[in-house]
Amino acid sequence: MHALISGAGIAGPVLAYWLHRHGWQVTVVEKAAGIRAGDGGHAVDLFGPAVDVIERMGLLPRVTAARTANDTITLFRTGRDPISLATADLAGGISGRHVEIMRGTLAGMLHDATRDDVDYRFETVIEQLDGARAVLSDGSTVEADLVAGADGLHSRVRALTFGPEPDHRRFLGAYLAVYTLPDVLGTGPTVAAFTAPDLAATVYPTLTPGLSRALFLVRTPEDLPLDRRGPDQLTRLVGDGLGPRVSAILEHAAGAGDFYLDDISQIRMDSWSRGPVTLVGDAGYGPGPAVGGGTSLAAAGAYVLAAELRDVTAGEIPTALHRYEQALAGPVRHSRRIGPKVLDAIVPRSRLQVWATAQAMRLIPRLPGPARRRLTSFGGGPAAMLDGLVLR
Ligand SMILES: Cc1cc2nc3c(=O)[nH]c(=O)nc-3n(C[C@H](O)[C@H](O)[C@H](O)COP(=O)(O)OP(=O)(O)OC[C@H]3O[C@@H](n4cnc5c(N)ncnc54)[C@H](O)[C@@H]3O)c2cc1C
């Protein structure tokens, strides 16, 4: 059996690994020239079952060794004293089994674990799809038994099979921007946080000494056209709302080689499989970047998909894909409630909520364990969505 996977992010390599283990031949096409490995990208979370998937791949020691080491978060407020909190206190409510790691580091490890057994084709995309027969951008044709779109929020396999993106995307009313900059705040290993109504920013260290990464969340009903998503738009949307320190951070946006600005949207589909074609990870059920636990859902979803495809014949694939959707239906439904909740918690809507956030940061370390966990769990958020998932 032969699988063609589009996308070598998180879901693609996890699916490739497990399908290969189950005896499949696997081809992965990836639009980019290589894996965006290293400490590029952003910090992502692996919770519960997603940690189990990584452990079953034999990667947990490496992943744990490379986990981010931000031990303190400091909230800066104009004209007020900063408030610091141990990140362990903040993460205590998220999950007992949780690893935070830079996305690029994880992607590099997943590629390493599959590169010898999987046919990776970089700078290659699927141009046309007819069932599981794909014409690729290099002119070749692949006759596969299964096509899996693991090509992220703006999935091409989804567009080719299920129609244009707007039909499946729900905008959550906010934008996300990320870029790398020198450690201009001099905060070293501390995560620096800033909030104001409808705005939040954090600046955190990368694995490269002297380099930080800035992450902005901006709530706005504006619909920014795709060709107008540059540093100038971020600067306009934030204005001087987060104070002079953040203005200094914004000055580095235009010069950043890795500037990224995208809408925070969810992918909502009742079904994400058709015949021998299916979607996995953000492509099929993205819960919203930075707010929904998408990495965990992508890793766990890929594992479940591969498990359902174990020992099937070509004729049994559509039924296996139906079982995959059923197994993930609960977590996916749950994930859709998380993004808006997390956004509301981390991007205050009013001055009162800005004040309340600061008070909560003061309070959290003094609370007894169970109360602290309840306050920091985002209402049973990203970690809880995978609680009901049983890995075979
Ligand atoms: C700033 C930011 C912060 C985040 N923070 C968190 C977090 O804290 N916790 C968390 O769980 N998640 C977080 N996420 C979300 C997380 O990164 C994604 O949910 C996760 O990476 C999904 O994995 P994926 O494999 O489905 O998609 P992706 O990782 O997006 O991979 C898709 C791959 O497909 C490739 N591709 C795209 N188009 C094509 C094409 N036409 N043909 C071939 N290849 C293509 C891309 O180059 C990429 O390699 C965050 C996301 C962002 C942007």
From TrEMBL:
SUPFAM superfamilies assigned: FAD/NAD(P)-binding domain
PANTHER family linked to this entry: MONOOXYGENASE, OXIDOREDUCTASE-RELATED
Taxonomic classification: Bacteria, Bacillati, Actinomycetota, Actinomycetes, Micromonosporales
GO MF annotation list: FAD binding
Organism: Actinoplanes xinjiangensis
Pfam families cross-referenced by the UniProt entry: FAD_binding_3 (PF01494)
Domain FAD-binding, residue spans: 3-322
Entry-linked Gene3D superfamilies: D-Amino Acid Oxidase, subunit A, domain 2, FAD/NAD(P)-binding domain
Protein origin, superkingdom: Bacteria
Protein name: 2-polyprenyl-6-methoxyphenol hydroxylase-like FAD-dependent oxidoreductase
